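Each record in this resource describes a single protein on a pair of labelled lines. An example record follows, reproduced without changes.
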Amino acid sequence: AVVSTQSTGDVLAIDDLFDAKPAIMRAFQIAKACTKSKRSDGVGDDYIEFREFRFFLLSLRQYFEYWVAFDRTDTDDDKRISLEEFVAAKDMIETWVGSIGDLEGEFAKIDANGGGVILFDEFCDWAIKKSLDLEDDDN
C-alpha cells in the first residue's frame, strides 16, 4: 500500500483558504450560536445544524472579506497589525470604512486588549461597527 504524505491543502492547492482559518472559525462560532439546538443529547450546540447552515455561509462570506482586509493590512504576515502597518495602510483602510481622523486613537480603540497590536477578532469587531466594505470584493 502507498501512503500519501500530502495534506488536504497540498492536494486541493488552495493555500489561501487554509490560511483563512481564523475567518472560518469565527463564522463557525457565530453560526452555531445563532439558535439553540433542538437535540436532546446536549451536543447539538457544538455543531452547525441544518437550519444554521445558511447563516454560516453568509457569515463565512463576510468574514472572508474581513480576512482579506486584515491580510492586506498585515504586511509582515505575522497575523497581527502593528501601529506602523495600520498607519501605512491609511489610504487603503479609508476606502473601506471612510475617513479616520486620529489614526493612533483609532488603533487604540481597535486594540481592545491593549496588547499593542490588532488581532483578527479585534479587527472584525471594528470592521462590523464601521461597515467595512472592500472595493473589489463584488467582482
About this structure: DSSP finds eight helices and no strands in the chain.
